[in-house]
């Protein structure tokens, strides 16, 4: 019996494709049909890779901060909307320079107050300048009179907040002027401070304009520590004001947590509703800002590059720690005083507080954790660590990943600041900034604890002053 030839059961796979043949399109070899391409097996899903990436992402977010990501995004939206509506007229008349009274509360500020008054005098008549010498023992009052300022001398001193209240009442500022600029004695106004700041009062609902802080240009003989601290402070100003504050000042949000007392403007009509010299607070500007929100007095305006002023920052570690502790203590005391409310500002404040605490803990624990991770290569599995706990920890958070997650985003902020102010040397000083951040973190948490046990009479605690140099 004859049988028909059997059909092949399957197609052969060519193991010797011709040169030039494309994958999946091999020519017949030795009479066999065209072969299918052998596909490489996909690598199995790696849980460890995902875990590593998520750990890195978590560290980056903790270092940069959810607030930075959130408010930067809001700021971008605000910038786009502003460009689209730039031709819209203001809903209220823009105040004039002569509508502004400048109030300076000072104690023993003879070294710096001359340049401060000169910067104001170039933009306003002398009749708009008011100085309260709060128990000064130097020539502060005499220098102020040389510039034509009206001077009130107090003895004994009442503290900065008390001096401000005394000046407002004595000179009847609220009756005579629609606006008041609260100016520190060591702060110089940019030449266009009022040209850029007054237009922000473009709506009746705007009751305060937060000044844009920038550190002063220091002489070339400044110490290395002073240069690093100054650059670090300038980076902080840039990061907070560009990446946080601009978004927080959006009309629909109004979540700015501080109108800094160094050089900011208020409508005088709301000052009677603000407890400027509240008991038990180290500083007054946080409380004044919280009062605006708590009593729904209006909106706080802010824009980078508007209402710019230059302020002296500490040059020594001692003065830096002293000033930062005072600022942090004042913040936590104000939070404790006002509590929380179901409003946008307090939701944003809660997010800020959570981030301050978590990021501070991360920075404080950074070096100890890094030491433990690096030591795992030595003691892991040994008699010192028979269970291999350090190896497991290092497997979850590799040392290199931790270093990159902390230092990379931190240095990115330094690059951003260096570009913003056009100072390449910041790229060098920035190598030391993580150490300063660790100091900041310790002060933040220490001040949080002190806020529950420490009260203040508001007495002056200014850092050491240096002779002021005129800013361009």
TrEMBL record:
Q: Does the keyword Transport apply?
A: no
Record-annotated membrane-spanning stretches: 53-77, 345-376, 396-419
Check the record and name the InterPro entries matching this protein.
Nucleotide-diphossugar_trans (IPR029044)
Keywords of the record, alphabetical order, are: Membrane, Transferase, Transmembrane, Transmembrane helix
Could you tell me which residues belong to the region Disordered?
A: 1-26
The GO terms this record gives for MF are:
transferase activity
The record's Pfam families line, in alphabetical order, gives: Glyco_tranf_2_3 (PF13641)
Q: Which portions of this protein are annotated as coiled-coil regions?
A: none
Q: Which Gene3D superfamilies match?
A: Spore Coat Polysaccharide Biosynthesis Protein SpsA, Chain A
Recorded protein name is Cellulose synthase/poly-beta-1,6-N-acetylglucosamine synthase-like glycosyltransferase
Q: Name the source organism.
A: Compostimonas suwonensis
């Amino acid at each position: 019996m004859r049988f028909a030839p059997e059909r092949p059961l399957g197609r052969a796979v060519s193991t010797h494709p011709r040169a030039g043949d494309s994958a999946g399109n091999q020519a017949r070899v030795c009479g066999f049909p065209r072969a299918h391409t052998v596909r490489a097996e996909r690598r199995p899903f790696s849980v460890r890779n995902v875990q590593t990436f998520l750990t890195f992402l978590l560290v980056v977010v903790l270092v940069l901060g959810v607030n930075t990501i959130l408010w930067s995004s809001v700021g971008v939206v605000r910038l786009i909307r502003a460009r689209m509506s730039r031709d819209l007229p203001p809903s209220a008349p823009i105040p004039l320079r002569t509508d502004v009274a400048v109030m300076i509360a000072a104690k023993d500020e003879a070294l710096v107050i001359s340049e401060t008054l000169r910067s104001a005098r170039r933009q306003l008549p002398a009749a708009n300048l008011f100085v309260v010498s709060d128990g000064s023992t130097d020539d502060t009052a005499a220098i102020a009179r040389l510039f034509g300022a009206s001077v009130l001398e107090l003895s004994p001193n009442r503290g900065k907040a008390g001096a401000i209240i005394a000046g407002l009442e004595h000179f009847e500022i609220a009756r005579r002027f629609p606006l008041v600029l609260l100016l520190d004695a060591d702060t110089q106004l940019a030449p266009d401070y009022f040209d850029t700041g007054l237009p922000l009062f473009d709506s009746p609902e705007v009751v305060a304009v937060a000044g844009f802080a920038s550190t002063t240009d220091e002489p070339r003989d400044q110490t290395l520590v002073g240069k690093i601290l100054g650059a670090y402070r300038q980076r902080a100003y840039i990061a907070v004001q560009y990446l946080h504050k601009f978004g927080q000042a959006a009309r629909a949000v109004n979540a700015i947590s501080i109108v800094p007392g160094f050089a900011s403007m208020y409508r005088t009509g709301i000052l009677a509703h603000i407890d400027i010299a509240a008991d038990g607070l180290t500083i007054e500007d946080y409380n004044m800002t919280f009062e605006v929100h708590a009593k729904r007095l209006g909106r706080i305006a802010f824009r980078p590059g508007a209402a710019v002023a230059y302020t002296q920052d500490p040059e020594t570690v001692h003065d830096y720690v002293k000033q930062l502790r005072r600022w942090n203590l004042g913040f936590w005391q104000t939070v404790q005083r006002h509590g929380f409310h179901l409003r946008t500002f307090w939701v944003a404040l809660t997010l800020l507080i959570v981030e301050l605490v978590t990021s501070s803990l991360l920075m404080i624990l950074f070096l100890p954790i890094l030491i433990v991770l690096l030591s795992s290569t030595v003691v892991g599995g040994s008699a010192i660590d028979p269970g291999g706990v350090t190896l497991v920890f290092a497997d979850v958070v590799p040392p290199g990943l931790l270093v990159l997650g902390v230092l990379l985003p931190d240095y990115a902020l330094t690059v951003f600041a260096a570009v913003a102010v056009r100072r390449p040397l910041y790229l060098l000083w920035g190598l030391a900034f993580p150490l300063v951040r660790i100091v900041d973190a310790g002060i933040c948490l220490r001040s949080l604890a002190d806020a529950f046990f420490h009260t203040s009479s508001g007495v002056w605690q200014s850092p050491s002053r240096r002779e002021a140099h005129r800013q361009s």
